[in-house]
Design brief:
The chain is of the alpha/beta class. It contains seven helices and seven strands, in the order ααβαααβααβββββ. A hairpin with a 2-residue loop joins strand 6 and strand 7.
Length: 192
């Protein structure tokens, strides 16, 4: 009887459908929000009256980019510590829900990923997005941030979409000095 029960459990586990990951409720650290704020301010604050940010983290992990080794990032950022890359990859295994802890000098709003999907599923795509969010510069998506142990170097991926053929994806390297994160270098990895 136990063998049959064990066999049934194994069969159920093997054939059980994989459920898409939903953002966890892990609290994103204050340092991550400081990094996000520095990157967003550097790239967008002077360009829009409203910043629209997806409320769940995203990555650039496509089939091709997930095959990239640590040297891929080191070519972009020669001073990048290996531990930052490892931490970045570890933290980006699943999406995390963001909260409004950004310190920005421009109006901003977080929108749920499900709302974004509804907007773009309807067919009006960007026209519908801009009806809902006029004066925005488009949609910003952020990855989790990778840090070194000293918490003075960080890397993040930021994606910005603003139309059918209007969007970019960047990796951004930051360093912290005098308790402030600053962008050292950004590297565009795609554009449309």
């Amino acid at each position: 009887m136990n063998k049959h029960l064990l066999l049934t459990i194994i069969v159920v586990l093997i054939t059980y459908p994989v459920v898409p990951r939903t953002p966890s409720t892990v609290d994103v650290s204050a340092e991550e929000y400081a990094v996000y704020s520095a990157v967003i301010a550097n790239m967008f604050e002077t360009k829009s009256k409203l910043l629209v940010i997806q409320d769940a983290t995203a990555t650039d992990f496509t089939e091709e980019s997930s095959k990239q080794d640590d040297q891929y990032f080191r070519r972009m950022f020669p001073t990048l510590a290996e531990e930052v890359v490892k931490d970045y990859k570890d933290r980006n295994n699943e999406p995390v829900r963001l909260k409004d802890s950004f310190k920005l000098n421009v109006k901003h709003v977080l929108i749920e990923k499900q709302e974004i999907e509804k907007i773009f599923k309807g067919g009006g795509w960007w026209e519908e997005f801009y009806k809902r969010y006029p004066n925005s510069g488009g949609l910003i998506m952020l990855s989790r941030v990778g840090f070194n142990a000293a918490m003075n170097q960080a890397m993040v991926y930021i994606q910005h979409g603003c139309g059918g053929l209007c969007g970019t994806g960047h990796y951004v390297l930051l360093e912290k000095s005098a308790d402030k994160w600053r962008v050292v270098k950004q590297s565009m990895v795609w554009i449309s």
